[in-house]
Amino acid sequence: MKMKLLLNSKYYLILVFVLTFHTVLAQEPNTQNPPQATENPNPNPASEETIPEENPEDPKWKKAEIRVIGDKKDLKRIPGSATIITKKELEESRPTDNMEILRRVPGANIRYQDPAGLTMNLGFRGVSGEVSRKVLVLEDGLFTSLNPYGEPEMYYTPSIERMERIEIVKGSGSILFGPSTIGGVVNFITRKPPKDPKLTLQTIGGENAYFSQMVNYGGTFGNTGFDVNVLRKQGDGFRAHQGYFVNEANVKTIHQLNDKNNITTKIGFHQQESQATYVGLTTGMFNNNPKDNPAQNDKRSIERYSFSIGHEYTFSEKTKLITRVYSAYTERNWARQNYARNSRGSSIPSDALATYDGEPYTSRNSDTIWMRGTNAHRDRTYKFAGIESKLQTELETGSIKHEIDLGVRYHIDMAKVQLLNGPVTPDFVLYPNGPGTSAVVLQSQTSLATSGELRDDERRSAKAVSVYFQDRIRLTDKFSIIPGVRYESFSQTRSINRGRRDFNPVTFDYASGTNPTVQLDKTASTRNQIVLPGFGTTLDFARNLTWFTGVHRGFSPPRYESAISPTAEDLVLKPERSWNYETGVRGDITEYLSGQLVGYLLNFEDQIINSSAAGGNLGSRPVNAGRSIRRGVETNMTFDFGQFWKWNYNVPLDIIYTRTEAKSNQYTYNLTEWTRGNTNPLVHIDTNGNRLPYVSRDILTLSIGISSRSTGFYARVEWQYFSKQFHDLENSKSVYWYDSVGTSTDNRLLLSYAGIKSDASGLDGEIPAYELVNANIGYKKDNWSVFVSGKNLQDRKYISSRLPEGIQPGPFRQVNFGVTLQL
């Protein structure tokens, strides 16, 4: 593993010292909010920003962040559902990962699949959350996914410890951003350079050997401000053999050249190693020991480097031009041990190293996993770069005011994808009764091959041009209409150098058994263009209340593997598209009651049905045959008893509720018949009206807190409920196993003895409803704080997912203690 120096504390501090005097200039320009007639030196006092109030005439404080929403007051400008998670909320909840805090956002659905939420699976309003492919996730307005236009997976996730606030937009305001906006836009915002030099230390430790240490140092000297952040996080995970660590270092600076010119940059480094695995538990294993993990030899390592530089030119108080260049490099290597499941008539593989089953029921079909003596190395490298220029201006036509955003972006993606098959683990001989006695041949159970023979070797790339325009037309001081349009043109290329020989382009599957690797050297490309209109309105019908409506077109590009076949054939797939409609009200009803109520309808069409197995190319031919409809209501309300009774304490009661009716509007096609031209519904499965996978119909969060306005004390208790989910579009509930040992009733009892409707393998069945209790308590003074946070205090054992390959439990109880200090 590279950069091991970060593990040593003295080098940790040396790195902070070196980066402190780094002269590269960083801090991102604003790409969302038009300039105001009068600049506000502290643009977000409501969220407790780091920069203190300064002289508004001082040009160095005319900072422009990349924001999707902006300040709390800017919520009035968004023609759709929008949420801001403030610095105060982050400090008082102390989440250990992004999904923990984001599942409090109305409409969010999440699932865990690794020991620490390192892979973010996030969706909104019933849109698939698989590796967050349908949600655009940004950090300070910049891409965070591997390849936005070809492989938008979120295997790298910005660390929540570094964040000052989070913005989420699911409505028409997302027309300024792309791609992958069907599910919405999430923008993580990091700390800005403070005015005075400030060193901040944060240390957190807790159960499961969890430890987190973060160091921040920043300040402003003359016309240059900078902020340096270094983070180390590690733990054993909440299941066996799931240790991990994360190292990060980031630098932001801003330099005010003169009254009209800002130069900004940002440099980031992320290193991660974890025992993340695709192998889930069987039903019996989950009931016997949900903390078990058969894949003790799996290891995933990630290194990511990012850089951006921006220039902002201010023509006048009402017009500015923002240009930025950005790039990122990610190396993701993942060694995963091969395994087999027992099935009717199967026998233990000759290279099996270990057997895992669901005691006390040890002989059920599909309830045993054999970990084998070989592995596969999925080594991948991703790069992207781009340049974007955006003009923000205000103008008037008669008595009508216009706030205009006009921008263009050129972006390129590149990827190198390889799979290496590791050799069989070498045997070793043991003489249990001494030399000369009978020998026992064993295989190593603690280590597997660190490399292997090249099987798959590909180069992938994408190029995209985006143009967007939005005009906020203020017809009156209270009523605005907001038309906009976005144009996307992108191409994708897949060059297949090596691959398996026996691939059937009709069944879209590989021949079973031995399938030799051959040199293919084939290349294919595909091109798509799409126009994405949007229209919204906002009406301030009371002092602090806004009614909004919006409709917009969302889209998501096909992945490389979907768009182009393993034989380098352009499959002529269209982008997935959606029409998103919504209307709602938000604002402060009184000084003690505020909230948002939204109704929405999302019509998702041209969905790519692709049953390829995760991490490989098995399955059926992808087609644009999917359709689904989502209807729902989202609300979040806060009633502050402290404000109501005029106490010296704030006592907010939060109610966050989502009702989602997400249903299929299609047949699940027999894709072999589809490719042969047979669209007769009688040969397909009717899933019309079935609920979509991994979407809880009802999600409810109730929390009550207390915080002193004078002493710095705060506490909060939270209860969350998630209704049951289905794993597949057929809404399978359970699969029963029959043999000569007993009746089907006997076996039915075995498979649901813990109330889990599932097959024995754990691969299919319902995701039962579950509820969680979380709590936080802390005390803050001017320059220090202490806190205790508890997650899942009841230590509920629940199923978070059956993907990728079996039952993945959700995080168990985690209690952390932390301190912060500012110098």
Automatic annotation (TrEMBL):
Residues 261-793 form the TonB-dependent receptor-like beta-barrel domain. Residues 75-185 form the TonB-dependent receptor plug domain. It is a multi-pass membrane protein. Keywords: Cell outer membrane, Membrane, Receptor, Signal, TonB box, Transmembrane, Transmembrane beta strand, Transport. The keyword Transport applies. Residues 29-47 have a biased composition (Polar residues). Residues 1-26 form the signal peptide. GO terms for biological process: siderophore-iron import into cell. InterPro entries: Beta-barrel_TonB, Beta-barrel_TonB_sf, Plug_dom, Plug_dom_sf, TonB-dep_rcpt-like. GO terms for cellular component: cell outer membrane. Residues 29-62 are annotated as: Disordered. It is found in: Cell outer membrane. Belongs to the TonB-dependent receptor family. This is Iron(III) dicitrate TonB-dependent receptor putative signal peptide. It comes from Leptospira biflexa serovar Patoc (strain Patoc 1 / ATCC 23582 / Paris).
